[in-house]
Amino acid sequence: MKHIITVVLGLIVTFATGAILWTQSGSAQGQSGCNSLQAVAQASVPSLTPLGLVKDVWGGPLYAMLDDEFLFGVMSGNDGTRESNANIGQKRDGSYTMGFGCSLGAGGVYRCADTITYEVSNTVYTPPPGFGRYIGNSAKIASGTGRFQFASGNLNINGPFIAWPDTTSPLKLSGRWNPELSGFVCGVQ
Questions:
Q1: Long-range contacts, 163-170 (Cβ 8 Å, 24+)
Q2: What is the pLDDT of residue 126?
Q3: pLDDT, position 1
């Protein structure tokens, strides 16, 4: 009987020690320099705030909170490559850049001191023309510059849009989109 009690107490101590160490390692990971990001943009197509990206389609002013710090900036980018689906709009490999500390440069392209580029692996949306909703909840921070040089993290992006045919637009389409961004940015300087 004494042997059984010793084994049971040994198991209890082992599990308790493991639980304490596991809890402490989880706490250390929670303090790894991640900041909450909440933002809203007022984007247009074609982009009003081109950043000189390969394909600036949507873009406009961006208002963000990084924890309790207010940031004003711009965003610009595109939804990626269209997938064939007759019932819903679907694109893959979209890329957007958020820029802060920006000024208008030569050729009407914005230059920004600090940027975060995020990639959206899969986007679904209501096909235009008309009112629709964009859902890109698979966004991952791919790169950054300035204080976001070492940024990483994941974002959820969604919001309503309206788009209409426009023969005067270089994209043959005009529109407005109010994306909401939320998630965490780690590695901020």
A1: 163/45, 163/128, 163/129, 163/130, 163/132, 164/128, 164/129, 164/130, 165/129, 169/45, 169/46, 170/46
A2: 86
A3: 53
What's the confidence (pLDDT) of residue 82?
A: 84
> Which pair of structure tokens corresponds to residue 139?
């966004």
- What pLDDT is recorded for position 30? 39
Q: Are residues 13 and 70 in the same domain?
A: no
Q: Which residues partner with 24 through β-bridges?
A: none
Could you tell me if 188 and 35 are in contact, meaning their C-beta atoms sit under 8 angstroms apart? yes
- Residues 66 and 35: their CA atoms lie apart, in Å, by 6
Same domain (yes/no): 20, 96: no
Question: Which stretches of the chain score pLDDT less than 70?
Answer: 1-32, 54, 86
- 17: CB partners within 8 A, 6+ apart: none
Q: Are 100 and 145 in contact (CB under 8 A)?
A: no
Secondary structure of residue 80 in the 3-state scheme = coil
Q: What is the pLDDT of residue 151?
A: 97
Cα gap 137→134, rounded to integer Å:
9
The sign of the CA dihedral 45, 46, 48, 53 is positive
Distance separating alpha carbons of residues 26 and 79, to the nearest angstrom? 35
Is residue 140 domain-shared with residue 56, that is, in the same domain?
Answer: yes
